[in-house]
Design brief:
Length: about 650
């Protein structure tokens, strides 16, 4: 008989030695206090940051009607000071802050805290010399190179607001984001390296700037040395500017509630939202969750494989680890270059203690085969992390046994761009873990599950995950669109923050995230709004209507399945389908590449003309259309043709 798989994984006695919180009682005591007395709880923890002045009247203020809240307002601090200067002063000047592992294995670089501070001050002065002032937005379109980290910390130092656009995004996505935030300075590079190949970056920037934007200055890092077009009077080289810049740049004293950065994220509308994070609450959240999720200890080497273009990179490559004085590893390349063992070679080379990645990468590694892992000595690993999607229990066990050698707890961290830092996660030393569950709320987070109509769900039933009140690192607003912020997060279920995710809570109170309940598709853990892909398709001359739904994908978790109807005078052909795919890649970016495009005569619609995506999801996923509730449809007869034409 097959052995029942283990359902619970307690931390080992060895692990408990490094745990910051080593028992359930300790977690529970701190958690209960964070809920009963949030102001006292966070007020004390604020001492973990360095302040110019703690001049706040109230730790927390919440205007429920306006959906506005503040933490530590009136307190003054600087994020770059907290990530760099204070560590240099406190004995870490010679400790590695950032390890850069390049695409080519033999080209790594390390920055100590003192060196990183030196570079950051110089680049802060470069920004100033280009007229960047406190509150100005700086758009950043860079691959995973150290200049990206330096640039963000330099912005934080002078109080400029950075807005990073993932370097895999296309010209149009870049354009929309740059225009929305009104950036006058853009920091970019000539190109990037990935898996031994050149990636074009500056070409896309040039194309974008053919259109009207506010950008006056483009600062270009030379990474690949490729021949690129530099526009006189607008484009300058990073190195030339750095050579002229002084290495002394005092920090701006920022209010706790001043904006630190914007990061655009996809929602269920076609327009990406510029999520706004502020200084103190964000930094405190990122630092503390970093410490607790991984039980970080001085001397550890920590590696998060995300890209800084996403929130995971902001909070857990940059701000969380550096605020904590940790050593953070940044990787430019891909898992399969020069061979399938690259990740493990890096772990072995740097003796990585903490490894944090996404289920999509874990599934890929599992598929590639255990032999690539077994070839390398991974005994330095102490704790593993997972983020971005629900992790399947089987995949969890594989990660635990094969990568972690059965020694390392797995921190399955649930959170979002908007939450700023982890909100539901297992504290690895505090209690046994269950494969596939994100387990319990972090301090200050009160999760509740409700049905679509707002009533509470029963134990074990799937519901919508909402949170009772704002926590320090919660996004404050959407750039230029507070109305959108209110509607999306605080007014769907009045009085609660709505995550957009489904979940269930088991009899022990542990939380199992089941995935998005809105029209957001998660491809390899990246959020893609169905509406954005639809808008891209509709912008093509041949497309009349488009409906985009997720289908399960073995590696990427979800893939994009697309239904389109064509305009008069256009006919289905292989070329057209190819052209549409290219069009989406160009408009949204390669991450949004549709796996399938099915051309149909008609889409299922309600009487009010709404496309019923629920039905399309079932059909795309392989349903025969027989068990569908088609009562809402004007014409239930469209179903047959949709099923027959499925690709
Ligand atoms: C960090 C990040 C957020 C969405 C979120 C969920 C999904 C993230 C987990 C997860 C299950 C997890 N930010 N998600 N982490 N689902 N378990 N541990 O991914 O803004 O890009 O995406 O990702 O659906 O709403 S994000």
């Amino acid at each position: 008989m097959a052995k029942q798989p283990k359902t619970e994984y307690p931390p080992s006695a060895e692990y408990l030695k490094r745990a910051h919180i080593d028992s359930y009682e300790k977690y529970k005591k701190a958690y209960d206090r964070s809920i009963k007395d949030p102001e006292g709880f966070w007020g004390e923890l604020a001492d973990e940051l360095d302040w110019y002045s703690k001049g706040w009247d109230k730790v927390f203020h919440w205007d429920k009607k306006e959906c506005r809240f503040t933490w530590f307002k009136g307190g003054k601090l600087n994020v770059s000071y907290n990530c760099l200067d204070r560590h240099v002063k406190n004995g870490l000047k010679n400790t590695a802050a950032l390890i850069f592992e390049a695409d080519e294995p033999d080209q790594s670089r390390t920055y100590t805290y003192a060196q990183l501070l030196y570079e950051v001050q110089r680049f802060a002065n470069v920004l100033k010399s280009k007229g960047v002032k406190r509150g100005d937005r700086v758009a950043v379109y860079l691959p995973m190179i150290p200049e990206l980290a330096i640039c963000l910390l330099a912005c934080a130092r002078i109080g400029a607001i950075h807005s990073v656009v993932f370097s895999g995004f296309s010209t149009d996505s870049l354009y929309n984001r740059v225009v929305d935030c009104g950036a006058r300075v853009l920091v970019t590079s000539d190109g990037g390296f990935r898996g031994g190949r050149h990636i074009d970056i500056k070409g896309k920037v040039n194309e974008m700037l053919e259109r009207e934007t506010d950008v006056e200055t483009v600062i270009v890092v030379k990474r690949t040395g490729t021949d690129i077009v530099m526009e006189e009077d607008r484009d300058v080289w990073w190195d030339d500017e750095m050579a002229k810049a002084s290495p002394v740049c005092p920090c701006e004293e920022m209010d706790a509630e001043d904006t630190l950065f914007l990061l655009y994220t996809s929602g269920s509308t076609g327009k990406p939202k510029g999520v706004v994070h502020t200084q103190a609450g964000y930094l405190l959240g990122a630092m503390l969750t970093f410490r607790h999720a991984f039980d970080y200890r001085p001397g550890d080497i920590y590696w998060c494989t995300a890209d800084i273009g996403w929130i995971t990179g902001h909070s857990y490559i940059l701000y969380g680890p550096l605020a904590e004085g940790a050593t953070t590893l940044m990787f430019e390349g891909v898992p399969n270059y020069p061979d399938n063992g690259r990740m493990w070679e890096i772990v072995e080379k740097w003796k990585v203690d903490v490894f944090y990645t996404a289920p999509t990468a874990i599934r890929m590694m599992r598929k590639t085969g255990d032999e690539w892992i077994l070839k390398h000595d991974l005994t330095s690993l102490k704790v593993l992390g997972s983020v971005g999607e629900p992790i399947d229990p089987d995949v969890w066990r594989w990660y635990y046994e094969v990568v972690g050698g059965g020694r390392c707890p797995i921190s399955d961290t649930y959170w979002q761009t908007e939450t700023g830092s982890h909100i539901i996660l297992p504290l690895p030393g505090a209690y046994p873990q269950k494969p596939g569950s994100a387990m319990k709320p972090f301090f200050g987070i009160e999760p509740t599950l409700i049905n679509e109509d707002g009533s509470p769900t029963k134990t074990g039933e799937q519901g919508r995950l909402v949170l009772k009140k704002p926590w320090p690192s919660c996004a404050r607003t959407v750039w230029n669109d507070h109305q959108m912020y209110r509607q999306t997060y605080w007014e769907v279920y009045p009085g609660y923050y709505f995550t957009g995710d489904g979940a269930r809570m088991d009899e022990d109170g542990d939380i199992w995230i089941t995935g998005r309940v809105d029209d957001v598709i998660s491809v390899a853990g990246h959020r893609i709004g169905a509406a954005e892909v639809e808008a891209a398709l509709i912008s093509h001359k041949s497309v009349a209507e488009a409906a985009v739904v997720p289908i399960p994908d073995e590696i990427k978790g979800e893939a994009i399945y697309t239904f389109v109807t064509l305009k008069q005078g256009f006919e289905e052909s292989e070329e057209l389908v190819k052209e549409l795919i290219t069009h989406v890649r160009k408009e949204v970016g390669p991450i949004a590449t549709p796996k399938t495009i099915q051309v149909v005569d008609e889409l299922p619609k309600t009487r009010s003309g709404k496309i019923v995506r629920r039905i399309l999801r079932k059909i795309a996923g392989g349903g025969d259309g027989k068990d569908l509730d088609t009562s809402a449809l004007v014409d239930p007869n469209v179903i047959g043709a949709l099923v027959k034409g499925r690709k």
